[in-house]
Predict the 3D structure of the following.
Amino acid sequence: MTEDNYSTEQRPYHHGDLHQAIVSAALEVLSETQSTEFSLRELARRAGVSHNAPYKHFADKRELLAAVSAVGFELLAKQMTDATKEFDSPRERLGAMARAYICGGVNNPALYRLMFGGYLSGHDHVRPAVEIIAGEKMKALLVDAISDGALGRPIPNTAANKREIDGAILVFWSQMHGLTLLLVDGRVGPSENMVELSESVFQGMLEGLAKRIPAIPAVTWIGSPAPTE
Amino acid sequence: MTEDNYSTEQRPYHHGDLHQAIVSAALEVLSETQSTEFSLRELARRAGVSHNAPYKHFADKRELLAAVSAVGFELLAKQMTDATKEFDSPRERLGAMARAYICGGVNNPALYRLMFGGYLSGHDHVRPAVEIIAGEKMKALLVDAISDGALGRPIPNTAANKREIDGAILVFWSQMHGLTLLLVDGRVGPSENMVELSESVFQGMLEGLAKRIPAIPAVTWIGSPAPTE
DNA sequence: CAAAAAAGTTGACACGGGCAACATTCAATT
DNA sequence: AATTGAATGTTGCCCGTGTCAACTTTTTTG
C-alpha cells in the first residue's frame, strides 16, 4: 500500500536521510529477528531504495553493524543514566546502573551481543571510533559512581587511585557483563527474575562470596529440569 | 601435492569418518580465521569431498556449529579438570579452574564465542543435546569445588543447600564469563596479563569489593591510551 | 552557471546454503 | 551368495547476498 503511494507520489530521487533510515531499519530487523543475519538488501527494501544505495553510506555490512552497535551503546548509557536519577546514595546509584545494564541487555539480546560480540573486533579491522566513544561514556558513569563512594568509601578519581578504580570497574563490569550474557543466552534463567538476580549478584559482589553467599531466586540452568518448587 | 596423490591413489568412495573430518576442519578454520563465517563448502574442500557431502552428516550449518561448540565444551572441561589436579585445597582448585576457564577462552576466542554466543540459542531452535551435556559437566566441576569448601566452608551438595550453591555458581560463573569475554573482545587488555587478572578478580570476588578492591595489573581499556608506566 | 561531488540506480559476477536426483558402497536378511 | 534397503558421496541447480562497475540524477560549490 505504502509502496503504491510512493510510486504515484513520485518520491524525490534523494531519500533525505538514508543513513539514518538504514540504521533504523537495521535496529528494527535486529529486534524482530534477534539476528544479525539480515541482508543489506532487505534494509534497502524497507527503506524503499535500490539494493545498492546503502553502499553510498556504509562501506560494507560491518560498517553498518558498527553504527548500529554505537546506537546500542548510546541507548544503554542513557538507560543507565536515567536509572540513577532517582537515587541519592552512590551505592544505590551503582545498583541501579547494574539493574539498568542487565535489563538493557536482556531486553534486546541480539543488540547486546552485537555490541559486545566479536563481529566487530574480529579480523584486522579496528573498532570504529563512534562505537569506542559511546563505550567510553558508559565507563565514565561507573567511574563517577565509584569515586562518589559506591563501594563504601569515596575513591577520588585521581591518578593515584587509577589502579584501584580500574580494579573495581573490572570486577563490576565483568560481573554484570557475564550475568547479562548468561541470561541472554538462556544459560541461566528464567530471565523474568533478572531484577532480583542482578540485585543478588550485586550484593554478592560487594560483600564477597567468602563472607556471604547471596540468596538468589530459584534459577534454572540450561539442561536442568525446572526448579521443583 | 596431496591433492594429486589423492587423485592417483583412487581414494575410496567412502571417506571413513567424514563427520569427524568435517568437525576437525571446522575447528581448524575457526582457529585460523577466528570467525564462524566459513562455508560448509570450504570444509568439504578441505576434507577432499564434494560440496554437498557434509549435508549427509549435518542437517545444516547450525548443526555443524553445534557439534563444534560441544567439542569446545569438552575441551574446556578437560582443561579445567587437569588444572585442578595439582592442587589439594578446594580454594586453590577453584582458583585453578577460574584460570583455566579464562585461558581456555582467551586462547580461542572464536570458539568461546561460538560456545556462548547466540548463534545456537537464537531462532526457535533448541540447544542441541550433546552441547547441553558438555555444559552440565562443567557446572558439576564447580559444584564439587564449592561443596568441598572452596568458599571457606564446606557446603554439602544437598537439596537444602541448592539455593546457596546456585547463588555461588551464578556469581562465580558470571564473573569468569564476563572477564573472559571482555578480554576476548579486547574491551580490556592486554590479555597477556590474563593470569594475573583472573587471580585478582577471583580474589575480589571472594572478599568483596566493599572490603578490599583487588590490586590488578595495569590494564588498558578499549579506546583509552596505553597505561603510562 | 559550469563542474565536481554526493546520492541513487541498474546490471553483473562469484559464492554460499540448501534441495533434488542420481551413483556407489555397505550391511542385513533371506 | 544374491538381493535389497540404508548410508554415504556426487552432480547439477536455484535463489539470495555481498559487492564491484558504470551510469543517472540531484545538490553543492567555486
Remarks:
- The first strand of chain B starts at residue 188 and ends at 189.
